[in-house]
Design a protein that fits this description.
Layout (H helix, E strand, L loop, with lengths): L3 H9 L3 H6 L5 E3 L2 E4 L11 E4 L4 E4 L5 E3 H9 L3 H12 L9 H5 L4 H19 L6 H10 L4 H6 L3 E3 L5 H8 L4 H6 L3 E4 L2 E4 L4 E7 L5 E8 L7 E3 L15 H4 L6 E5 L2 H9 L5 E3 L7 H8 L4 E5 L4 H16 L3 E4 L8 H8 L1 H9 L2 E2 H12 L5 H16 L4 H15 L3 H32 L13 H16 L22 H16 L7 H4 L2 H14 L6 H34 L1
Parallel strand pairs: 12-13, 12-14, 14-15
Antiparallel strand pairs: 1-2, 2-3, 3-4, 4-5, 6-9, 7-8, 9-10, 10-11, 15-16
Helix pairs in contact: 3-4, 13-14, 15-16, 17-18, 18-19, 18-20, 19-20, 21-22, 21-24, 21-25
Amino acid sequence: MIPSSVIEDIRYRNDIEDVVSSYVPLKRAGSNLKGLCPFHSERTPSFVVYRDTQSYYCFGCGAGGDVVNFIMRQENLDYVSAVEFLARRAGIDLPDFSDENREREGPSRTRILQMNREAAKYFRKMLFDDNAGAAGRDYFVNKRGLSSLVIKRFGLGYSPMSWNGLRNYLSSLGFTYEEMKTGFLCGQNERGYFDYFRGRVMFPIIDLSGNIIAFGGRVLDNSKPKYINTSDTPAFKKSKNLFALNYAKDSGEDTIIICEGYMDVIALHSAGFTNSVATLGTAITAEHARILKRYASKAVLSYDSDAAGSKATERAIGFLSDVGIDAKILVMDGAKDPDEYIKKFGREAFGRLIDGSRSRFDYLIEKTLKKYDVGNADDKIKAAGEICREIASVYSKVEREIYVKKAASALEVDPKSIFLDVEAAIRKAERAKKKERSGELIRITSGISDRVNPDFVKRPKTARLEEDLLGMLMIHPEYISVKLDGGPAVSESDFFTDLGKRLFSHIKAQTESGTFSTGSLSEKFTFDEVSRAMRMQNNRRELTNDETAYLTYLEEIRKENAKHDAKATLEDIISHKRAGN
């Protein structure tokens, strides 16, 4: 849809080092760059950026690709949207490349964003409509005490109790019912298409670029569900977005306050705590944690103290700690949420509450001591076991030493005993990880359960030879025309896996039309397939890849294919003879 020459210019003007380093701190590692992977949680950097090939690869999770692929993953964009994103970054004006082929694939991200913007205008208009918006204004202004400035800042609105008000409005602007359904603004039943949000105050979800990517809607009575949130769409993914992060990122604070609901965040922002965010109808995820790490090194969790809130707190602490965020827990007495606390006791009191937030370990100690009767020997042993396993998961030796002393004091036991149990827990965890890594390595090399290349398991030896050959072709695409003595140049028929055939065909087509670039893979292959291709290339990076090596691999592949064909022929003959008997 976008000319390859334009895409190459966009890639050239978006150096991968500059783009990736705006998301991930990178350090020199020889001629390459290294950092913590933004796509999985890790303590030791395994994410490598190769400046010579303008590509990246993570040796931890296997993610790999070029600058376009990186933006697709990081910003949750489709291929064309990622190219447009990078074009804007480089100051390149692009025409609208949408065409009927793209429309057949469903509404584009751009189209969904345009529709969301119009929907937000509709909700805002309804909120200030003298008749239709009375209930919404009563909730925001009278019940919640929000000023018109705050309402405007967050783009708040109201969806009337209408079956098709928004549907008809968007339709009048040229949006189709199918687009509304895909964008989670309309549903469909036997009566036709209807508004999803009805009789609810509306909270637009805005991304870091200022786009309205989704909505949350709250009922004004006791009906269920209390909240409806946009499901994943071409423009939105819950696990990669946070409410009000577009404001919180510019707060200048190194601490992020994480709340449960939209109104908690709005109340905190109104009181001056502009470093507040909330998840979107889901528990915090590892992706949320990695996103937050870009903007803060500390976090305060302000969740409900009930069972569900306690479970969510533990989950969040784990994810935040995994990425190196120092997470603390805010405990409120005398109020059910931050909004009520600030109204009761004032902004300064809430500030002191934040300063006095409990550490992860203090929270754990308190929770464990409530769970067990440490006056009972059996319960004390169970409590010690839980605490020791928690200390063992801490990365810093200094932190572990401090926690060992705290645990020993709380349980009234010898610190040496706690220390020894912690060391034992660490060794056990390391053995389990080593076993898991070994199992994964065996599965990868043997092709067992290979969901990216399911044909691998059928003939592992041939498949490994294919991957080596493809890796060399990606490094030296000019080899594609080199002929083996006594035989033709490589062709699609030399590959037996479907992935191998498709990768070869793509490399050949790109080479014949100009110059092959690994970046071109992102347009035709899935994330996992691109990552596998990058692994093929990286596996050959430090090995001999001259023409002789290439022809040796091609010859071996043809020998393996000949053996397989001969075996298949023999089995076919035997099968026919048996059938004849």
